[in-house]
């Protein structure tokens, strides 16, 4: 099963990539694809919407944190309009 979850990149300041990754992999493990970026300090989000839609259609489950990030970015409102 595939999940959309956060992968930490920053050393001193937390910066995360949103990745599609196999459930059995660890947090810093090899990801299938990078689908976004999240900076909690600057409150910036960059999403690859077609890639996220692709993985969600294939059955990928976002973690609770990634779901909240997508909801704040109004991702699901865009999805309903399409």
From TrEMBL:
GO CC, alphabetical: chloroplast; mitochondrion; small ribosomal subunit
Pfam annotation, one family: Ribosomal_S16
Domain of life: Eukaryota
Main location: plastid
Compartment(s) where it occurs, according to its Swiss-Prot or TrEMBL record: Plastid, Chloroplast
GO molecular function, one term: structural constituent of ribosome
InterPro entries: Ribosomal_bS16 (IPR000307), Ribosomal_bS16_CS (IPR020592), Ribosomal_bS16_dom_sf (IPR023803)
SUPFAM superfamilies: Ribosomal protein S16
Gene Ontology biological-process annotations: mitochondrial translation
Keywords for the protein's UniProt record, in alphabetical order: Chloroplast, Plastid, Ribonucleoprotein, Ribosomal protein
Gene3D superfamilies with a match to the protein in the record: 3.30.1320.10
Family: Belongs to the bacterial ribosomal protein bS16 family.
The protein's name in its UniProt record: 30S ribosomal protein S16, chloroplastic
Organism this protein belongs to: Deschampsia cespitosa (Tufted hairgrass)
Gene: rps16
């Amino acid at each position: 099963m595939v999940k959309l979850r956060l992968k930490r990149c920053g050393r001193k300041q937390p910066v995360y990539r949103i990745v599609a990754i196999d459930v059995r992999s660890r947090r810093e493990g090899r990801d299938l694809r990078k689908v976004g970026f999240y900076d909690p300090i600057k409150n910036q989000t960059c999403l690859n919407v077609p890639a996220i839609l692709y993985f969600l259609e294939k059955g990928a489950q976002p973690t609770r944190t990634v779901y909240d990030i997508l909801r704040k970015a109004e991702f699901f409102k865009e999805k309903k309009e399409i």
